[in-house]
């Protein structure tokens, strides 16, 4: 294992970068800077130095086939995952007690994510909204049961969640709601979504503070084609009384499946 050590400007402490996993060169990340070099060793030095200086940075990738380096905002949970062709090595700032070193105050924190690979899933901050649901989201792998709608595979890894629209009434809603208490600050929500079919209705992200009316924060409607898309960043002002809802509505026929995958909630505002 290769380890790099940088000195943080504010604390003068040494923070090592550990090789934590391999990722695809096309992995969707919040890239801060990209660099090309003549060798991997050169890129290691450049990226470790850049990441140490930039307080937003917590990781960097070295993509050996392209001789490409990129510094990254955020971090990747230390869980196994599938890797496509064109492998990059991800080096992250080592932090005891959490997945991520929050650089502004030097504390170790973790972020919430739902990849739907396990059931139950301890890291997931969402659960079925038992008080508001009219039908449930379905955890699934592979293609959905109806032709002309739904994905054929997950956006990442093996499992995803979707609404099965062949049996439920028009206009009914399946809702996931947050089940953790938030700090009083702005968070960043990211996720993959798939909306394919002639009768796809709507997918929305909403927040609700206490008993106040829920507020739409993001929404998509209609057929987007047979592809996964990524909501790359939705800033949400949250506090201990506020919940997040992800709501999918059934259209007029069985060709209205809506799917989501790899929902993440980062403890900072989106860039």
UniProtKB/TrEMBL annotation:
Q: Which SUPFAM superfamilies match?
A: Concanavalin A-like lectins/glucanases
**All copies of domain MAM, residue ranges:** 112-271
Task: Kindly give the Pfam families that the UniProt entry links to this protein.
Answer: MAM
UniProt xrefs under InterPro entries: ConA-like_dom_sf, MAM_dom, MAM_domain-containing
Domain of life, source organism = Eukaryota
Single GO cellular component term: membrane
Q: What is this protein called?
A: MAM and LDL-receptor class A domain-containing protein 1-like
């Amino acid at each position: 294992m290769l380890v790099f050590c940088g000195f943080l400007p504010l604390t003068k402490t040494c923070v090592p970068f550990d090789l934590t996993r391999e990722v695809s060169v096309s992995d969707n990340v919040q890239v801060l800077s990209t660099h090309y070099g003549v060798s991997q060793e050169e890129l290691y030095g450049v990226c470790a130095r850049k990441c140490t200086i930039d307080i937003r940075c917590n990781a960097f990738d070295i993509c050996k086939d392209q001789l490409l380096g990129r510094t990254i905002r955020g971090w990747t949970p230390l869980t196994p995952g599938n890797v496509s062709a064109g492998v990059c090595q991800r080096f992250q700032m080592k932090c005891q007690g959490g997945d991520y070193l929050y650089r502004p105050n030097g504390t170790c924190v973790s972020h919430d994510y739902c990849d739907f690979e396990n059931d139950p899933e301890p890291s997931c901050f969402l659960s079925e909204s038992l008080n508001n649901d009219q039908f449930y989201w379905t955890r699934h792998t592979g293609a959905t049961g109806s032709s002309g709608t739904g994905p054929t595979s997950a956006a990442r890894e093996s499992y995803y969640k979707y609404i099965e629209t062949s049996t439920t009434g028009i206009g009914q809603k399946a809702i996931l709601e947050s089940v953790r208490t938030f700090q009083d600050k702005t968070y960043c929500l990211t996720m993959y979504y798939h909306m394919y079919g002639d009768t796809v209705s709507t997918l929305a992200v909403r927040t609700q503070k206490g008993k106040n009316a829920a507020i739409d924060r993001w929404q998509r409607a209609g057929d987007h084609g047979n592809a996964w898309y990524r909501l790359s960043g939705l800033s949400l002002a949250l506090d201990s009384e506020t919940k997040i809802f992800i709501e999918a509505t059934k259209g007029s026929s069985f060709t209205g499946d809506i799917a989501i995958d790899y929902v993440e909630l980062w403890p900072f505002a989106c860039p």
